[in-house]
Amino acid sequence: MNQALTEISGLFEGARQYAVANNTYVWVVFDDSPHGDEDRLLVATLASKTGIELAPWGTDDTASGSARTRLLSKVRTFKQVKLSGAGVFGSDKISDLPEVPDAGDPGDSDFVLRLPGEGEENFEKAVEFTPSGEARNAATLIGVIEIGLQPTHGRVADADNVAVIRINGLTGQSTIYRP
Predict the structure, then answer these.
(1) Contact indicator for 1, 151 with CB cutoff of 8 Å
(2) DSSP strands (E only) in 62-143
(3) What is the pTM (predicted TM-score) of this model?
């Protein structure tokens, strides 16, 4: 769980820095579909090849020859980790988690990646970083994007071991909260 938190938070920071340094759009994308008898979370970082935002937002098929994005880092697989949306964990689970009424989930997306030995995977959630470093969960700016994570055993979530990563929409910076 600690490794997943550290790496995902690092992917957010790297995506923000790449977007600003290269004046382009970057997406951190998630696939949380179960695999076999256990949960898993796949995370990848993609950048626009042309420097422009995809329209409609978050739609690209990198499995085809006409992909408009490039993979910036290898796809990370976190076994026995479950992704949850905004507001799932509150101050009752994480005492120092500030209340944020307008926190949003990662945005819906449709990125398809071909993974070696596994075929095509559909990444249905994404956080976008703009060339100015803002974080978005859709085509508009949001105050805070919140991602909840918890380890699982098989497909049973550990209710006491939870974490939240919050991304500031204006600055794109992320913060990890743990009990």
Answers:
(1) yes
(2) 69-71, 76-79, 81-84, 103-104, 107-115, 119-129, 135-136
(3) 0.91
